[in-house]
Every structure is written in C-alpha cells, then in structure tokens.
Specification:
Layout: H1 3-8, H2 15-25, H3 32-40, H4 44-59, E1 62-66, E2 68-71, H5 101-109, E3 118-121, H6 131-144, E4 149-152, H7 155-165, H8 169-179, E5 183-184, H9 194-200, H10 207-219, E6 223-230, H11 236-253, E7 256-263, H12 279-292, E8 298-299, H13 303-306, H14 308-314, E9 321-324, H15 347-355, E10 360-364, E11 370-373
Parallel strand pairs: 1-9, 1-10, 2-3, 3-4, 5-6, 6-7, 7-8
Antiparallel strand pairs: 10-11
C-alpha cells in the first residue's frame, strides 16, 4: 500500500483533504479555493503523497535531465527588479559584461566536441541587444551547429525588443522562429498578480504581456516553459492566481512543457531583508504545483537554484525533472546566494544524484525525446552497481 492509500484509509484525514484527493484521483480539476486550502491547511505529508501519486502515474520512476549549457549575453540591464542580484545598472556597467555575437560564438565553439543538446540563452535588457542582434545570433548559431537546440530569451526581453523594433508579438515571434529559435525558457514570469509584480518588477512587461508572448509562440506550433518566483512578499492567493493563469493558457494552447518553481534568494539584492522560504515550504510549493497544474506534463526542480539535496527530496514531491548539466555557465542564482556557487554537474554526477534516491535517470533533449535511458547503465567509477556489469559502460563525457 502506498503512502497516499495509507493516508486515505486514516479516519483522521481532514474531510477537505479527502475530497481533494478523491477529485484528483478521479481525474477532475481542483479549484483556486482548494489550491489555497492545500497551502494553508493541508499537511505536507498529504500534499506530497498526492503529488507523488500524480508524478508516478505519469512518469513512473523516471527522472529526466539534459546536457546543456547557459549563455548569458549581458548582466547589464535597463530594469531594476528588487529581487535581482544578477543585473547591473547601465551607470555601473563596468561591473558587468556585454558580449558581442563573436564573443558568444567563441563560447559556443568550446562545446563543439561535447555531446550537449541545448544552449540556454537569457540575460539583461539593453538597447543594442535588439531584433537584428538576436536574429543574427540565432542564425549564426544554427549555421555553425544546426543540431544545437536554441532555447532563448524571456518575454521580458522579447517585449522590449519588439517594442523597440515596432513589431507586434505575433510578427516578432515569427521572425525569431525563422532565425532559428527552437523554444522559449520560462523566465521573467515572477508573479503575475499586479499587486506583487508592480512592487518587485515594476517597468517590465506585465503578467498579461508575458502570457501573450507565449501564446503567440504556441500558435506557431512551438513549445515553451513557465516559471514562478516564490517565497518573498507574495501570499498564497497570489501563487494560485499565477498557477491558474498558466493552467488557463495551457488549456487554450497546449504549448507549455514544464513548470519550474523558482525559489527567491535574498543575497545581494534590494530584498535582502526578506527571509527565504524553508525547505518545508519549498516542498509544499512543488507539490501543490504538481496537483494544480493538471495539464502540464512536467515539473522541474532546478538544482542550481534549489540545491542538490532539496532537488533530490523534490523527486518525491511532484518533480520529475532536474534540468541539466549547466556546466558552470550560469551566474543568475549563484550571485543571489544559492547553494550552488559553481553550478556544474557531469552526466555521471546527475545520474548518480537521481539514482541515490531510487529514481531511474533518463537523458532527454529539450523536447523530452529520450536520448539515453541510464537505468542499469554503469560508469567505470561505479562500485555499487556491479550487478549490471553485463551492460555497456557509459561514456561520462
């Protein structure tokens, strides 16, 4: 008998929790009110067990990852988000970096002999990083390495780029696709509700504009991810409002692949006085997300931000994906005080991280096509998996 069945057989389980579980298990959708109840009143053990049931019904014991690297064109930015530890104002641009296309291609070329499948590109917003710059960048990447999946830019960046170029969202996203953009990451969502968004990210695109840009991308038959920045000044109803807007757009387009809750980190920013969420709160955030977003296939625990230990725990609270190798190429969260100050894991590291909590590691590409199923595969350094020596030895590179 699994943990959820044990809880449901317990007469002391709150009737509201029992009703929610029965609704979910019968394939019905919970309401915003029920989502808030899960945050405010339900025990962590209950929401975790329900989320894990959903996760295992969809993905069994599989946990996904990919081989990727991050490319950050600049950390100088026009915007002054209070939660951001990464960006530098233009008046302090000497503290940051601003890469040219040649600079970025030099970085990309260092991966020519490596089996990475994705380059993830996000950065600050500056006038010179305009429509022509990014379409030229995407074309150059594809000309150099056509098989490298380009996952690039958030609606915050696209909103500025398209406004400056005087093109609407539909035309702008079409131009990006034609230039070689393959998918969009989920960043820049923060919190959609204007009550919070205006306070922590004033001046950026609104929540509705963020959703509109993803809508236009999905209309082109393309895929994207979604995020939420949680654990700062928002309330539970703001979180549920955010999830509801994502769920509604997914009903409309079906274009989202993955939801990634992003934990607020308080080092080096204007919100350093705000305490970070506890691990218990992190686990509940992921679990409620898995329960609420019934039309999202995947929930990702982004290990460079949340830390390896918590990421492992989250694989029992609804998460089925750990992102990728990263290869020490992102500074966005390490600059904010995340546990991972030099975020890089080899394929072997990730496989073992997943195995150590009893899950089966599966390497995917960006669109969740299976590249390698590492279930039972051993590395030369393995000692604990001697029982699988008849299987091929994996290449750790």
């Amino acid at each position: 008998m699994d943990k959820l069945s044990i809880l449901l057989s317990d007469d002391s389980l709150a009737k509201e929790d029992r009703a929610i579980a029965e609704k979910v298990l019968s394939g019905n959708r919970i309401t915003e009110k029920e989502g808030i109840h899960l945050f405010e009143n339900s025990d962590l053990g209950f929401v975790g067990a329900l989320a894990n049931k959903i996760r295992e019904d969809r993905h069994g014991n599989k946990t996904y990852f990919n081989r990727n690297f991050h490319l950050e064109p600049t950390n100088v930015c026009l915007y002054t988000c209070t939660f951001c530890s990464y960006s530098r104002l233009i008046k302090k641009r000497e503290e940051g970096w601003e890469y040219s296309i040649d600079d970025m291609m030099d970085i990309i070329k260092t991966y020519d002999d490596k089996p990475v499948t994705e380059v993830h590109i996000v950065g600050g917003v500056l006038p010179q990083y305009d429509l022509k710059f990014y379409t030229d960048l995407f074309k150059t990447i594809k000309s150099h390495r056509s098989d490298l999946h380009v996952k690039a830019l958030t609606p915050v960046e696209y909103h500025y780029i398209f406004k400056k170029a005087k093109v609407d969202y539909a035309e702008g996203m079409k131009l990006m696709k034609e230039a070689g953009l393959d998918s969009m990451p989920g960043g820049g969502a923060e919190i959609f509700h204007p009550e919070i968004r205006d306070e922590i990210a004033g001046g950026k695109c609104s929540g509705e504009e963020w959703l509109s840009i993803h809508r236009e991308w999905h209309k082109l038959g393309m895929r994207s991810n979604a995020t939420m920045l949680y654990g700062h000044i928002e309330k539970y109803h703001h979180r549920i409002d955010h999830l509801e807007k994502l769920r509604s757009l997914q009903d409309e387009t079906g274009g989202f692949q993955t939801f990634i809750p992003l934990k607020f980190r308080n080092k080096g920013n204007q919100m350093s006085h705000v305490n970070e969420s506890t691990v218990v709160e992190d686990l509940k955030m992921y679990a409620v997300s898995r329960i609420y977003l019934d039309n999202f296939d995947h929930i990702k625990a982004y290990w460079p931000m949340i830390g390896r230990d918590t990421a492992q725990l989250l694989l029992a609270f609804g998460a089925d994906d750990l992102d990728g190798t990263i290869d020490d190429t992102t500074k966005i969260y390490s600059m904010a005080g995340a546990e991972e100050q030099n975020p890089a894991l080899s394929t072997e590291d990730l496989v073992k991280l997943i195995r150590n909590v009893g899950r089966n590691p599966v390497e995917r590409d960006t669109l969740y096509n299976v590249v390698t199923d590492y279930t039972g595969v051993v590395f030369e350094s393995d000692s604990e998996y001697k029982g699988y020596v008849s299987l091929p030895v994996a290449n750790p590179n």
